[in-house]
Structures are given as C-alpha cells and as structure tokens.
C-alpha cells in the first residue's frame, strides 16, 4: 500500500477520531468543576506522543497507559480496569 | 476461503451468529471457559457450564457445519477466593478426557493479585500433569503489560514448553515480549479495547505471521463474531497475499490446536 493509498483510505476515519478527542477535552473544560484526574493526565501525555516522528507511537502510548510495577497485588479488591495506571 | 476462530464465547451468542459465521467461511471454533459477567455462586455452576461447553455447544455449532472444541478452567476474575477456585479445579479432570476438550484455558491474571497468581500456578500444574495445551488470558488495559510478564514467568517455572502455550490478547506493547520468549500469541479483535482489525493488520506487517493468530473473542460485551473475516478483508484490501491471510486465520490456528492431538476442522 502506498502512502497516498493509506491516506486516501484512512484519513477521514482518523480525522473524525482526532475531532472526538478534541471535543472530549472541550467537554471536560465545560464541566462545572475542574478536577485533576490521572486518566486525563495520562491522555494528555499520549496526545504529545502523537506528534513524535517515529514508528512506535502505539507501543509508546500503550506503555504510558500501563502499570510498570513488578510485584503482584496483595489482593484483587475490584474487577475491571480504568485504562490508565494509578499515580504512584 | 475458510477460517478458524480459535477464541470465541458462543454460550453468549445467538444461533444467528453461528449462521452468519458459517456464511462468512468459519469451519471451526474453540471456546475457552471464561467469566460469565457475574461471579457464580457455587462450583456446581461451573459443572453445568462445563457440560454446556462439552455437550450443548458442539451440537449447536454442528447445525451450521462448524466444528466446536473447548478449553476448561476457572477464569482469573473468579480466582480471588482460593478455596472456591480449588473446588472448581477439582471438577476439571472429570471433563479432560472428553474428545473435544483441548486443554486448560483461558487461565491467566485479571488484577495481577497474589491469589490469582496462585490459582494460575495450580492450573498450570494441572495442564502439566495431564500434558495439555494452555490458552492464556492476559489482563485488560493498564494491567496487561505487568500481567503478561508475571504469566510468562509462571509458565517458565513449569516444565511446559512455551510452544504449547498461546498467550492471548497481545497488543503492540506485549507481542514482542511474548514471541521472543517462544510462546504463541493471539490478537483479539475488539471494537474498543484490544486490537481493531486495522491495528492487527499493522502488527502482522511489523511482526510477520510466525506463531500468531487472530480471534474475535466474541462474548456478551462489545465484540464482533465476524471480526476475523473483517480482519481478513482488511489484509486483502491492503494487497496482502492470500497465503498470508490463510496462514494467520487458518493454518496457524490449525498448527497450534493440532498439538492437542484432538483438534480437527471436520
């Protein structure tokens, strides 16, 4: 697949996705109370990675969104995952 | 072209899905035991679930020309209560000689807790004792990277060869870790979490097809039982050769599953 073919095929889909992210951040700004949230902090770090010039942005973003501790938890007190690691 | 979906939870899907999968070329599936969306109240609930996987689902699949095999275990989400989990594990050997049971799965970790790890180790020992294949669930989202490492270390502490273990739900940050240690890897095609068909195609372009398969992991949540043919179409539309598409969606699952000595597509 050529670069032009890739752009033709995928541009509109990803134009929509970047608008979704922008609208989400705007939506947060319009909320009554402005609060810090570790998930949004992580998302902002991910957005910066998008502007890097390399071919491993996806892996970098997944690593930003990962728990990098090594030891098992003492207990699983809840099921499910939030999508971003809790701050240390 | 025909395909195999090696990880899908048909107990959560309708008969219409079997029909649509058959129309799309599906000839065989394997169904790992998993979390039902709620914690079961007794080991007897698992006994009935294992009967459903070994008796009811193969018959339902056969109506559409799809061959059905399964994997048995207690999933990590219900492994925090060690006593309960051990009662469930004690049921499994009764079903292991059923001709459609391929191995132990999908075992693994969910929140990466000590009890989950203990039950993982005990189920690996069960697979080791009975010389069975292992299908591994890796945790969701932020817990995946850590859990994948803990799981691979646990397998390495057994005599189970990594080429008899498939580690599922890999993404860009875990696939290299899994393949370089000799395991098989599975990419799950989900609309929101895990891999989209497009990202799976990207990963195939970056890592090749060796010891890698794709699956839908269709279940009761946001998922798509036709995700495998959609990924095949994505690959074809990018100009990938038919052999590559056949390898990732048929030949590779057939190769790994055949190590069980029990798998066939007819």
Structure overview:
The complex is a heterodimer of chains A (88) and B (266). With 88 residues, chain A is mainly α. Chain A has two domains: 33 residues; 32 residues. Chain A has three helices and no strands. In chain A, α2 runs antiparallel to α3. The longest helix of chain A is centred in the N-terminal third of the chain and has 28 residues. Chain A starts with a helix and ends in a 24-residue tail after the last helix. In chain B, 45% of the residues lie in helices and 15% in strands. Chain B is built from nine helices and eight strands. The chains are: A mainly alpha (88), B alpha/beta (266).
Show the helix and strand layout.
The complex is a heterodimer of chains A (88) and B (266).
Chain A: H1 3-30, H2 38-50, H3 57-64
Helix pairs in contact in A: 2-3
Chain B: E1 3-5, H1 15-23, E2 26-32, H2 43-62, E3 67-72, H3 82-96, E4 101-108, H4 114-130, E5 133-137, H5 144-156, E6 165-167, H6 175-180, E7 184-188, H7 197-207, E8 212-215, H8 227-237, H9 242-258
Parallel strand pairs in B: 1-2, 2-3, 3-4, 4-5, 5-6, 6-7, 7-8
Q: Tell me the number of helical segments of chain A per DSSP (H or I, 4 or more residues long).
A: 3
* Most extensive interface, chain pair and sizes: A-B, 28 and 29 residues
**What is the spatial order of strands in the main beta sheet of chain B?**
1-2-3-4-5-6-7-8
Largest sheet of chain B: 8 strands, parallel
Number of E-type strands of chain A: 0
Distance between the termini of chain A: 43 Å
Strand proportion of chain A: under 5%
Which structural class do the helices and strands of chain A define? mainly alpha
- The proportion of residues forming helix of chain B, as a percent range, comes to 40-55%
The arrangement of helices and strands of chain B along the chain is EHEHEHEHEHEHEHEHH
Oligomer: heterodimer
Strand content of chain B: 15-25%
* Number of E strands of chain B: 8
Tally the helices of chain B: what do you get? 9
* Number of domain modules of chain A: 2
Low-confidence stretches of chain A: none
């Amino acid at each position: 697949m050529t670069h032009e073919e890739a752009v033709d095929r995928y541009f509109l889909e990803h134009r929509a996705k970047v608008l979704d992210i922008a609208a989400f951040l705007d939506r947060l700004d319009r909320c009554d109370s402005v609060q810090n949230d570790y998930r949004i902090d992580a998302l902002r770090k991910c957005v910066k990675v998008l502007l890097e010039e390399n071919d491993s942005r996806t892996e970098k973003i997944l690593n930003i969104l990962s728990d990098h501790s090594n030891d098992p938890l003492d207990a699983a007190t809840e099921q499910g995952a939030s999508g971003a690691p809790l701050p240390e | 072209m025909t395909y195999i979906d090696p990880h899908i939870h048909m107990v959560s899907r309708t008969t219409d899905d079997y029909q649509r999968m058959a129309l799309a070329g599906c000839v065989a599936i394997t169904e790992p035991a998993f979390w039902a969306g709620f914690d079961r109240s007794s080991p007897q609930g698992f006994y009935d679930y294992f009967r459903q996987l070994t008796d009811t689902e193969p018959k339902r699949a056969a109506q559409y020309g799809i061959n059905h095999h399964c994997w048995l275990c207690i999933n990590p989400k219900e492994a925090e209560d060690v006593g309960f989990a051990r009662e469930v594990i004690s049921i499994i050997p009764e079903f292991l000689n059923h001709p459609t049971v391929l191995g132990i799965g999908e075992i693994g970790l969910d929140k990466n807790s000590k009890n989950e790890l203990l039950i993982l180790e005990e189920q690996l020992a069960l697979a080791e004792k009975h010389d069975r294949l292992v299908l591994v669930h890796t945790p969701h989202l932020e817990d995946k990277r850590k859990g994948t490492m803990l799981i691979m270390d646990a397998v390495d502490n057994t005599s189970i060869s990594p080429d008899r273990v498939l580690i599922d739900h890999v993404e860009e940050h875990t696939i290299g870790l899994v393949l370089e240690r000799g395991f098989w890897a599975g990419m799950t095609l989900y609309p929101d979490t895990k891999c989209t068909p497009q990202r799976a195609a990207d990963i195939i372009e970056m890592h090749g097809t060796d010891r890698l398969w794709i699956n839908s992991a269709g279940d009761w949540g946001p998922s798509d039982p036709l995700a495998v043919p959609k990924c095949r179409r994505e690959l074809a539309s990018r100009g990938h050769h038919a052999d590559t598409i056949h390898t990732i969606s048929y030949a590779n699952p057939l190769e790994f599953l055949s190590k069980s000595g029990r798998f066939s597509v007819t």
